[in-house]
Amino acid sequence: MGCTFAKNAKDGSNQDLNHAGAEAPAAPPPQDPRIPLTARQKFSISKSWKAIARAMDTTGVSMFVKLFEENKELLLLFENFKHLESREDQESSEELKEHAEKVLGAVDEAIDSLEHVDTCIDFLRGVGKRHTKIPGFKSEYFWRMEAPFLAAVKETLDDRYTENMESIYKTTIHFIIQTLVDGFEDKPKQKAA
After folding, report:
1. Mean pLDDT across the stretch 76-99?
2. What is the model's pLDDT at position 29?
3. What is the Cα–Cα distance from 183 to 106, expressed in whole angstroms?
4. What angle is formed at CA 114 by the lines to CA 150 and CA 46, rounded to 5 degrees?
5. How many angstroms separate the Cα of 127 from the Cα of each of 2, 13, 26, 76?
6. Distance between CA atoms of residues 132 and 118, nearest Å
7. pLDDT value for 96
8. In DSSP terms, which residues pair with 7 in a beta bridge?
9. Among 3, 34, 125, 191, which is most buried by a count of CB atoms within 10 Å?
10. Which residue, among 55, 28, 54, has the nearest Cα to 42 in the 3D structure?
11. Which intervals hold domain Globin (predicted)?
12. CB 107 within 8 A of CB 179
């Protein structure tokens, strides 16, 4: 079926008159304010994250080594690798590597589900809640992961870690950590706007 164009008598512009009666394409759905990223930022982090996903083990180990350098007391929370005091021991530990992959796997799942806000939030809150079973774990410990996470991502992405990507990763990890904390502290879940 074809379209005809009619001249608007008022301003002389052409208007598309579709004989099939189809409506103009719908505008994209409004962004859910519970996730503080624009559609473009979500696309950028999903695309960028693929490089991290390919190097999850090295990125994760780097993140934990940085965490333990800055927070030695947190190493004691980990039964399987609390004896790993040196950087070299931590970098070569299979137990630490497995845990690091599990943690970044959770971040991977969160980033993959950013378009499905309730799924993403429910998943992260569940991860946060499971941490209540770790003896001695406090919600503030989640925040100690922020700087090591960003440093490890920067190291992995290298020159692809631009100022714009840094801003997007900071916003994303802040959202992820706050949602983990909300789950840990059993705070009421925000409703969609």
Report:
1. 92
2. 56
3. 14
4. 55
5. 54, 56, 36, 20
6. 22
7. 95
8. 14
9. 125
10. 28
11. 36-185
12. no
- pLDDT band at residue 32 under the 50/70/90 scheme: confident
What does the pLDDT average to over 135-162? 96
Beta-carbon contacts of residue 107 (< 8 Å; ≥ 6 apart): 149, 173, 176
Q: Where is 151: in which H helix or E strand?
A: helix 146-157
Q: Which residue has the tokens 């922020």?
A: 146
Rounded Cα gap, residues 168 and 42, in angstroms = 8
Burial class (CB in 10 A: 0-12, 13-18, 19+), 139: middle
Q: What is the DSSP letter of 13?
A: -
User: Could you tell me how many residues make up the chain?
Assistant: 193
**Average pLDDT for the chain:** 87
| 3-class DSSP state of 47 | helix
pTM exceeds cut of 0.85: no
Cα–Cα distance, 29 to 100 (Å, whole number):
35
Higher per-residue pLDDT: 33 or 126: 126
d(CA 141, CA 139): 5
Q: What is the 3-state secondary structure (H, E, C) of 82-135?
A: CCCCCHHHHHCCHHHHHHHHHHHHHHHHHHHCCCCHHHHHHHHHHHHHHHHHCC
Residue 86 corresponds to which tokens in the numbers above? 């040196």
